[in-house]
Every structure is written in C-alpha cells, then in structure tokens.
C-alpha cells in the first residue's frame, strides 16, 4: 500500500484541485449576532470539504470567500443591527437603569469593529481562504459587460420595448475576482473552480464559461447549492469518470468461510475514492471472486475498470472483542457482543448466538473468568468468527434483587 501511494506521488498524473467559492446567498443569516457567516449550508460545505480531503490526500478542496462577499455580509449584518438597535435601546430605557443603558451604548460603539474581528476569527477557525478583489486591469471588462448588458449584468426594467437600467456590478466584480485568482495558478496544475450560489442565471452563460476556461486554463462549474445539495456528489462522480484508474484496494472480512467485502479504495490520477459495498457476501476464496467483485465495483462507479489495473485484497481482521455483561447475585449473562476490526469498523454479533445463555457463579473468581472467556470464544467460533487470540474487554452492569 505504501509503495502504491509513493508511485502515485511520483508520477505526472493530472491532479485536479477543487476551489469552492461561496457567494453571499450561501452564507447569509438574519440573526442579530456576531456570527457573520454561520448557517446550515456553510456548515454542510465545511463537512463535505473535510470529509473529501480526509479520503483524497493527493487532491483536495479549498473553501474560499471573495472579498466582495465578505464586505457585503458585513454590510448586511450592520443593517440588521441598526434595524434592531432602536427597539433594544427603548426597552432598556424602560428599566430606568442608567448603568445598563450606558453599557449598551458602549456595545453599540464597539459592534462594527467586533463584527469585523469576529468574521476573521470565523474564517480562520473554519479554514476559509479569501479571494482578493480582481486587479484594476479588469475594469475595462466590467464596464464592457455593463454597457453590453451581458451576464453577470442584466437589465431589470423594460419600457417601450427598451431595456432600462441593470444590476450585477457586485456579481461582475465577484466573477472577475475568481477569474483573476485563476489566472495566477499555473495551467500545468489544473484546478476546478466551483461557484456555489443560489443565483446561477447571472453566471452560468456559455460565453462566461468559455471565456474563463479558455483564458485561465482551468475549469469552472456553477452550482445552485442552496436548492440541490446533491449536485456536488454528481459533480465528483462525473469528474471521476474522466480520470484513469491505476489501482484498486479491496477490504474484506472472513466469516463462515465466506468473504464479505465492505469497501474498495480506487486510486485514480492522484485521487483516492472510497466505494462502499456494504459487506456484500462472496462464497469461497476471495481471490477467486475477483471478477465478480470488480463487476460490482464497476456498477457502483458507473464505469469500467481496465483488466490491467492492479488489484490488492486487504483482510480486515478482528482487533478487539467487547462484551457487555449483566451481573446478578447468583449468575451472569451477556447483553451484547461487539467486534472491532483493524480498519475501525464495528460489528454486533447476532443475539441468537448467546440468547438465553447464563453462567452460574463459582466460588473461584479466576475460574469464573476463564470459563466465561472460553465460552465466548466458542460461541464466536460457532457464529463463524475466527478470533481465538483476540483480546476480550468486559463491561459489567451489576443488578440487585430490587432491580
């Protein structure tokens, strides 16, 4: 496994890095608070980024916020504050507490600066990077789009069949900020920019996409993340279909002479994709089932795996046995048995293998322990598990006659 990863690192595979860019509508909240970005959608994006980066060590996702989005969110929060300020002030004055009113006045004065400081703390904590404003050189492009009323600019009024006025300056600055950011990244390390917005119609034009990809050498996707949170998974899978698969690592467990495949790691152009087969059962020697397993993996992936791709089988062995015991005055019995595997998976042993079993207490405490341990290994063997040398951890719940 180590050799495979080193080989992938030392080859010239095209490693795509995703640059997620969040628009204002993705991180908006109306709360009267110091939280500038905190909302459900953003938390979900952070989880997706962290999970993806955990399993794809050679390619990754960065989460980015344009400077103009930061400015807009600060403005929106200050508006919310100013709207609520008179009501709070008036209610405090009704208390006739001068000291409290004065403290509130101090809070009002400090709010703007504390809000800005808190935003930077949020970005640092959540590891969100800032995309600066586009260079001044893009001003001509912005003006031209405004004059020609091309997206992200758009006309907002029709009078006597004429387009009057437009909106979209902020969106145009955001677009060219991303554009400017992409221009500074070498073409030999291709990236995929993903603009996450609830306002795709102002960005997702053929001309915009073509201009971006032709001039920067990088790809860009516009995703309405606010409405279709599963669009990201579709994007990952569509991108994955274009990558070359180099190695397949199949994780399996043994039970009752059958092989249960839990998952497979697919090494593809520097990325590692995890495919779950949910402990699908295969009868007989695992290596002889290679063709059937690969076929099932292909169905999950939605693409074929070449016959010359290297395949490695990794046995997930039982690393620890956890037994919960109910202890009574004259006897004890098992309430549950859980098996922990070397890959971190947990499996609960079917209750039918120890249902109704009770152990009468002997005077010799050591004898109790040895007899119980032997019986646990025996019932696990009967259930199809090979774990004679695995350590058993016990947790005991003692019951009195009143229970």
How many H/I helices?
10
Provide the succession of SSEs.
Answer: HEHEHHEHEEHEHEHEEEHEEEEEHE
Q: Distance N terminus to C terminus? A: 53 Å
Number of domains: 3
Poorly predicted regions: 7-13, 155-160, 162-166
User: How big is the Rg?
Assistant: 30 Å
What's the mean pLDDT score?
Answer: 77
SS-based structural class?
A: alpha/beta
Strand content: 25-35%
Helix share, percent: 25-40%
* Largest beta sheet: strand ordering: 3-2-1-6-7
Largest sheet: 5 strands, parallel
Number of strands: 16
Shape field = flat
Describe the protein's architecture and organization.
The chain is of the alpha/beta class and 403 residues long. The chain has three domains: 225 residues, no CATH class; 71 residues, Ubiquitin-like (UB roll) (Roll), CATH 3.10.20; 81 residues, Nucleotidyltransferase, domain 5 (2-Layer Sandwich). The chain is 38% helix and 29% strand. It is built from ten helices and 16 strands. The strands form four sheets. Strands 3-2-1-6-7 form a five-stranded parallel β-sheet, sandwiched between helices. Strands 12, 13, 14, 15 and 16 form a five-stranded mixed β-sheet that branches. The longest helix is centred in the N-terminal third of the chain and has 28 residues.
Could you give a short description of this structure?
The chain has helices at residues 2-9, 40-55, 67-93, 98-125, 139-148, 169-183, 206-216, 231-240, 290-301, 365-382, and strands at 17-22, 61-66, 128-131, 154-159, 162-167, 191-197, 219-224, 245-255, 258-268, 271-283, 310-315, 318-327, 331-341, 346-348, 359-360, 392-398.
